[in-house]
Amino acid sequence: MTSHPAVRTPQQDRSRATRARLLAAAVDCLAELGWQGSTVSVVAERAGVSRGAAQHHFPTREDLFTAAVEHVTAERLAAVRTHADELPAAGPDRTRAVVDMIVRLYTGPLFRAALHLWTAAATEEALRERIIALEGHVGREAHRAAVEFLDADESRPGVRESVQATLDLARGLGLANLLTDDSVRRSGVIRQWAGVLESTLRPVRP
Amino acid sequence: MTSHPAVRTPQQDRSRATRARLLAAAVDCLAELGWQGSTVSVVAERAGVSRGAAQHHFPTREDLFTAAVEHVTAERLAAVRTHADELPAAGPDRTRAVVDMIVRLYTGPLFRAALHLWTAAATEEALRERIIALEGHVGREAHRAAVEFLDADESRPGVRESVQATLDLARGLGLANLLTDDSVRRSGVIRQWAGVLESTLRPVRP
User: Fold this and answer.
1) In the structure, what pLDDT confidence band is assigned to residue B103 with cuts at 50, 70 and 90?
2) Any idea where the HTH tetR-type domain is (chains A, B) (predicted)?
3) Domains of chain A from N-terminus onward
4) A36, A46, B47, B176: which could form a disulfide with A25 (CB 3.0–4.6 Å)?
5) Are B141 and B76 in contact (CB under 8 A)?
6) Using CA atoms, how far apart are residues B128 and A180, in angstroms rounded to an integer?
């Protein structure tokens, strides 16, 4: 027990960097090629890593892709938190900006990758239980972030359901953007929902 | 030009029945097995039809599954219209029942089948253009039905976007129901959404 976790050797740093490259490449592959086309070999090649090294980090294909979607989701949420001070201060403009930000998380390559994984899990037993666990985890994290950014008081009636509806709406908008660029229609939907959400979160009393 | 389209021979009737059986079986297969597992042979077997007969009706796999999702969607919308008189009369109860009905269309096997087809189309060129056309067609029909059942006046500000948002929400709720039974959470979201939608459709003036 002489190792000290805070001091990393160059080898540990390299291993960590390899792992990160594999995870990022896995999400890119899933988003572009879907589940059928995304094998460990394809990901290893894209990451510039040998197949053996890839399998050292992730023994199975299911390990690799589940870890990838989890890791990249955590990264995106962290990035969103880092840029939180660029959002408008409290009020309708902030709510609009937050809804827009949430929907952007669900209309990019990460959502596309997750969608391929979810759809594959619907018919592949080896994925199913892991993706159900991942879905629960990602869903809770996304909900927590939405509550925080919207400054939503979930003890008020309808607020919790409205935050959930915002995430469900974002998921639906992500699906509508899968095959075609839906951005023009989407911006009208976002504007309308953000207005409604703001009046639920902070109703103007007569 | 001696044939008369209104008089069908027994052979035409049989052919029509075979086609309908193939279309229904195709949607069931897609919903259960996904795109990879759904071949023309698997569908033909489930429909109790020879592979040759299946190919006579649908020369390619893409023909069969695109036609199936289109046909079953039209059937469901027709069924919904048939039962329209069972809905409550105008008011909040009707809006709630209509939102519930729309969401039910997006949380059953038909949505599951469509999701597999959409996801496959994201990476398969042979499907892509057809599914984009189908998505446009189905989207317009669903929107038209929603406007009709909600008695929505789209000339009022925000109404068109709110109807669109309702369909996007339904799609997101369908996705959330893919791997687990999400019905309890969903009913809270539907209740909240229907209340908000009703105030947008028919605001109470002071």
Assistant:
1) very high
2) 16-76
3) 60-201 (1.10.357)
4) A46
5) no
6) 10
